[in-house]
Structures are given as C-alpha cells and as structure tokens.
User: What shape does this take?
Amino acid sequence: MHKKLVATWVLLLALVCHAAPPKPMVTFTVDALKAPEKKEWAEKELKPALEGYAKNVIELLDGKGTKWTRGDIPLILETKDGVAWASGDKIYLSLKFVERNPKEVKGALVHEFAHVIQDYRPAPGRAEPYARAPGWLVEGIADWVRWVNYEGKAGAKSVDDMARGDPRHDASYRVSASFLAFVSRKYDRNFVMKLNKICREGKYDEEVWKKLTKKTREQLAEEWKRWLQKK
Ligand SMILES: [Zn+2]
Assistant: This one.
C-alpha cells in the first residue's frame, strides 16, 4: 500500500478511537417496573450521574477487585417509604424520598454505591457478626465518600459543622465522616482506603487504628474533638 494512504488510515483510525466516548467502569440499569412514568427521568438524571462518579468511589475505596465492579448495577425505583438502600449489588431508591428531597437524591445514591463497593464479608472461620466492622464505621465511610468527596467543599464543611454539635466520633453518618476525614488529613491520605480494605477482608478489630496511625481510637477521637473546638 502507498505510504501516504497508510498514514491517512492510521490518522483516521486514531481519530475514530479518540472520538469514542469513554466506556463507564460500571453501568447502572434503571428498573422502573413499579413506576414506569419515572423511568425516563431516572435514565436521564440519575444513570449518567452515577456512571460518571462510580470510578471515583472505586478509587477511593480501592474497589477494583470487588466483583461488583465487573458489570451492571440494578437501580430499582421503589414506591414504598424510606430513603435509598443497598442489598448486594442492587440499589433501591424510594420515590417518596425523591418527592420530599429532590436535591439529596444523587448524593444518597453515591452513599449507597459506596456500600456496594465496601463489599464487607465475614472473615474465614468467623461468625459473620464478629467479622463485621461496627455500624457507625460502615455508615461513616459511606458518608465520607458522599459528603467529603462527592459533595465537594461545602459538603466537607457540613460534616465538621454537624460534628461540632455532637462530637462523638462513633455517632455514625456525617459525624463519623468528619472524624475519618480528620484522621486522613492528619495521618495518611489513604487512611480510609486502607481501613476499608481491612473491613472488606473481615479483619477489623480495635488494633487497626494503632496499626495505621500509631494511636488508639480514643486518642484519635480526643485529637479530633480538640481540633473541632479550635476550628
Ligand atoms: Zn448507609
């Protein structure tokens, strides 16, 4: 083949490859069997937002090896009460919550997707409840993903503001997210990722705080409280 022709083909091929939109790491499929009138809205509004942010959640929680990152996550629209919840690889969203808090919906779904990627399972040979991380930590990590990372600067500020009113590091959700954000900033920016990996492997116990920061959980909580008061 003529050299110029080859060059043209190579250029064309490069252009075509470049023009193809990046394939999302995880896809979400809307299940609107219970509310068909909401299908279009969920596909236009929620699906692209989740697919666009999913890779960040996977990076934040080192979730590349989890089985949920190899496929499609069902996003099920529910008519019953509640907010949003995850079960295995399925995420459910209450349409009653959507009506009451339309601005909170995407953030709530990011929190649920974080639960999917947390992917905690029992340690070998241990009964499930003992292997699991405490509930406040499970919710704290999911809210750290949502408020400190996904919701940007205002979200990160909101967790500290909320914690100031109730500075118990194990108060769960946003208050615990503030605690985790503090420990990450002070000791190791990959702290939450490492802690989450330990939880995922079913190896969480009190020693992990010391292992990762050289401080006990109580010492870290005291430091965090003092920092909140000064801020
Ligand atoms: Zn949760």
Residues 182 and 227 are 9 Å apart (CA to CA). The first strand starts at residue 27 and ends at 31. The chain has two domains: 27-118, 128-230. The radius of gyration is 21 Å.
